[in-house]
């Protein structure tokens, strides 16, 4: 089916089948096969996450944008770098478990480096304390990147740098979201970072589950120095 003739129902079926992938390897294969049409399909879902996250980053980041090195974890096809480029960020390193998604990201020519990694199964393949900004958008959710990875995101950030994270607030992700919040609080207690702002985003993307209709909500929060969460 050509990308142009796809309907919301076609995309919905594809996303639901992705949720059914049982192993991480299966999920990555799914993303490999989705990569070519991912951006067009997500437009049909009104996926606002990269745009919202980049706007939040832009309103909080006061450093030198051209010099700032950004680590885009679970970068997918590179939507985050494209959105951040609009706000004058220039230097990106991407990490993802899907070669197919990274191949599309490579074609944007925005990434200085793209590194394969099965997050949660392999260590984040970067040096600690190197990045001014670490972003993870659309991937901290049930069945994708495990909560434990946020410690690695924190470690890879420069002291005084920031981490931007997003997580969904819809039914099937509530348990994951609670575990993520508990981990962030725990890390705050350990003095690793502090939460500055939490913002709810009402319309994150169109809901695809049978149990929901309309739009999925999500949360935006700003924590720092070292971390903010969306
Ligand atoms: C919904 S897409 C989001 C991509 C991009 N950040 C965006 O907002 O468009 C999720 C991405 O996370 C990657 N991903 C999910 N779980 C992963 C894991 N455990 N390890 C590595 N990559 C993972 C997928 O390959 C996919 O590219």
From TrEMBL:
GO molecular function: methyltransferase activity
Matches recorded under InterPro entries: Methyltransf_25, SAM-dependent_MTases_sf
Keywords from the named record: Methyltransferase, Transferase
Ranges for domain Methyltransferase: 70-161
Biological process (GO), any one: methylation
CDD domains for this protein: AdoMet_MTases
Keyword Cell cycle among record annotations: no
Gene3D superfamilies hit by this protein: Vaccinia Virus protein VP39
Family annotation (Pfam families): Methyltransf_25
Domain of life of the source: Eukaryota
UniProt-recorded name of the protein: Methyltransferase-like protein 27 isoform X2
Organism: Xyrichtys novacula (Pearly razorfish)
């Amino acid at each position: 089916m050509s990308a142009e003739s796809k309907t919301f129902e076609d995309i919905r079926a594809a996303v639901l089948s992705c949720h059914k992938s049982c192993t991480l390897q299966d999920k990555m294969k799914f993303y490999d096969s989705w990569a070519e049409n991912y951006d067009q399909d997500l437009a049909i879902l009104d996926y606002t996450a990269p745009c919202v996250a980049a706007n939040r980053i832009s309103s909080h980041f006061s450093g030198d944008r051209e010099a700032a090195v950004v680590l885009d974890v679970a970068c997918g096809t590179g939507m985050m770098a494209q959105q951040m480029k609009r706000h004058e960020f220039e230097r990106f390193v991407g990490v993802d478990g899907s070669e197919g998604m990274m191949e599309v990201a490579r074609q944007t020519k925005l990434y200085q480096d793209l590194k394969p990694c099965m997050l949660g199964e392999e260590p984040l393949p970067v040096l600690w304390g190197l990045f001014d900004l670490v972003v993870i958008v659309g991937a901290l959710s049930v069945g994708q990147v495990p909560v434990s990875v946020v410690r690695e995101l924190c470690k890879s950030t420069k002291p005084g740098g920031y981490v931007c994270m997003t997580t969904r607030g819809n039914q099937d992700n509530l348990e994951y979201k609670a575990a993520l919040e508990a981990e962030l609080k725990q890390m705050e207690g350990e003095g690793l970072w502090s939460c500055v702002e939490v913002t709810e985003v009402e319309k994150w993307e169109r809901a695809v589950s049978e149990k929901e209709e309309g739009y999925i909500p999500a949360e935006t929060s700003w924590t720092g120095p070292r971390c903010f969460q969306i």
